[in-house]
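hey
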């Protein structure tokens, strides 16, 4: 029996979604092979909570638990932290030092992909299109008119390091831009301002299993909001997630999957990732990559796996088993 620490929570607005993902993982791991423990990661404590609500703090020296006098050593970690410190790689360096394997991409890959500015620059070296953009640190000065003359309107203003569209604004008028920039800076000290690409939003999920890269069916996002923001992502009825997309040309589907496989392999990803694109009339534009995508019942990856005939239980068990082969 292998002990699995399913880490969740974290320090961002994605805390609750992360907890939902973790419980989804625990409910679907094979109880005959794996003993799963949900480990909550907060700024104040790392802990396991039993069925009575009693909390047991993790020993950070070796990432162990002591329950009823018995020391629990974890054989691997299932990373379900969306945002920092799981998706940006911070906690993964800790597990590397302890020699504990985990289901997500490593520290270096996670740090790169979580930073939209750096990730976009890397992706362009692969010949993949990204939207035209400008980036500013909190110490930089900027001129609204210069930004608009360079990128036009509308634009998207984003923190460079955040997930689930937290801190992201769509700006359609010049007088909205300063407030959107302030909002983005409230989440990160570097921001990205991107031109708006008009097209279909397409998501591609993929993962490696037994040295074979599995590319899941695509999903098209059609939102009822201005864009696929935090509310649209997590509120029932605010967006339609169509898997697979309707009336998507086979050649374009093949191209999206091939580009996704290229990005996954060249970045050196591990575990499940989801890559988001805008498909304009004749061009595909990379938007971002999620190295710890949502895994709750409402999330895209479980729906994509189901459309391929892969149960969510099989998916999670494959990811954990792969760490021991």
């Amino acid at each position: 029996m292998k002990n699995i620490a399913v880490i969740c929570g974290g320090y961002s607005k994605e805390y609750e979604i992360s907890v939902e993902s973790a419980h989804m993982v625990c409910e679907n791991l094979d109880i005959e092979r794996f003993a799963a423990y949900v480990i909550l990661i907060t700024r104040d404590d790392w802990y396991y909570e039993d069925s009575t609500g009693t909390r047991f703090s993790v020993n950070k020296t070796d990432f162990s638990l002591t329950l009823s006098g018995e020391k629990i050593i974890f054989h691997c970690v299932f990373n379900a932290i969306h945002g920092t410190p799981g998706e940006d790689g911070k906690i993964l360096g800790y597990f590397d030092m302890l020699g504990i394997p985990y289901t997500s991409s490593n520290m270096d890959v996670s740090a790169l992909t979580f930073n939209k500015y750096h990730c976009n620059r890397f992706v362009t070296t692969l010949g993949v299109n990204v939207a035209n953009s400008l980036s500013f640190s909190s110490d930089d000065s900027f001129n609204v008119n210069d930004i608009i003359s360079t990128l036009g309107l509308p634009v998207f203003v984003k923190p460079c390091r955040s997930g689930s569209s937290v801190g992201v604004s769509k700006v359609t008028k010049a007088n909205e831009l300063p407030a959107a920039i302030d909002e983005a800076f409230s989440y990160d000290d570097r921001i990205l301002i991107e031109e708006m690409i008009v097209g279909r939003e397409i998501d591609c999920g993929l993962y490696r299993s037994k040295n074979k890269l599995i590319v899941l069916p695509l999903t098209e996002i059609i939102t009822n909001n201005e864009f696929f923001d935090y509310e649209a992502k997590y509120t029932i009825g605010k967006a339609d997630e169509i898997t697979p997309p309707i009336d998507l040309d086979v050649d374009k589907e093949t191209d999206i999957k091939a580009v996704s496989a290229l990005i996954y392999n060249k970045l050196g990803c591990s575990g499940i990732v989801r890559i988001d694109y805008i498909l304009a009339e004749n061009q595909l534009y990379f938007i971002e990559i999620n190295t710890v995508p949502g895994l709750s019942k409402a999330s895209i990856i479980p729906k994509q796996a189901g459309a391929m005939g892969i149960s969510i239980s099989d998916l999670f068990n494959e990811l954990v088993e792969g760490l021991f082969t």
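The chain has ten helices and 18 strands. The longest strand covers residues 200-209.
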